[in-house]
Amino acid sequence: MIYDITKDKTRTKIAKRCLDFGLYRVQKSVFLGDVASNRIDEIILASQELMDPKTDSIYVFPMCREDFDKVRIIGQGLERNLVATSC
Question: Which residues make beta-bridge pairs with 30?
């Protein structure tokens, strides 16, 4: 999940919800994690309740384990075992 939220309070609430759903923060507005497919809609709905669609944006990129394994990171990366277990 990647987001661009204008209000600090809203941004903090969305970040907390991401953590509550078991996602890991990899950058200030970037979260990754191994989430059951039926929980993705829950994350989207929870975020939509907080955001202002006129000024904010949220991107959710579900991907299977095979695609996640193809991700290439240049520079300081993340610990993949923290982000994804088996899918």
Answer: 2, 27
Helix (H) or strand (E) holding 41: helix 37-50
Q: What are phi and psi of 59, to 5 degrees?
A: -120, 130
Lowest mean pLDDT among 14-18, 49-53, 78-82: 78-82
The secondary structure of residue 69, as a DSSP letter, is: H
b (16+ CB within 10 A) / e for 14-53: bbebbeebebbebeebebbbebeeeeeeebeeebeebbee
pLDDT tens digits, one per residue of 57-79:
999 988 888 888 888 878 766 66
